[in-house]
Amino acid sequence: MTFLTKKLRQPITAYEEQHSEITLRTPGMAEVNAIKAYPYTLCPDDDGAVEIRIKPVLVSKYIEMLADIPASAVKQIHPADVFEIGNALMGFFTGNSEAAASSD
User: Fold this and answer.
1) Are 80 and 9 in contact (CB under 8 A)?
2) Beta bridge partners of 42
């Protein structure tokens, strides 16, 4: 199982404890089925190029499930950290777990 540990720009409080980093486990189909979507979409343009769009709301849901922290704690995470976690989460879904595991 691959894990992603992310140092946070600012500490968050979860379960009455301060955390300066969070660790997410590898998502499985149970999480994908529960959320009913991947945390990004692939959007082709007229030239045939594909743009990847990260969905912050879905990234937040994955953080909640995979880090086992409440939504109230996820809401405290800096938006730049959520963006970086979203990029790293893509590695779990694309098979590039090395990229997912190296995020901090």
Assistant:
1) yes
2) 52
C-alpha dist (Å) from residue 30 to 22, 34, 37, 62: 21, 6, 11, 11
- The pTM of the full predicted model, rounded to 2 decimals, is 0.86
Residues found in the chain: 104
CA distance linking residue 39 with residue 25, whole number of Å: 15
pLDDT, one tens digit per residue, over 13-64 is: 999 999 999 999 999 999 999 999 999 998 998 898 998 899 999 999 999 9
Structure tokens given for 7? 């140092």
Distances (CA, A) of 83 to 19, 41, 59, 70, 78: 18, 14, 8, 18, 9
CA-to-CA dists, residue 37 to 20, 56, 67, 98, angstroms: 28, 12, 18, 22
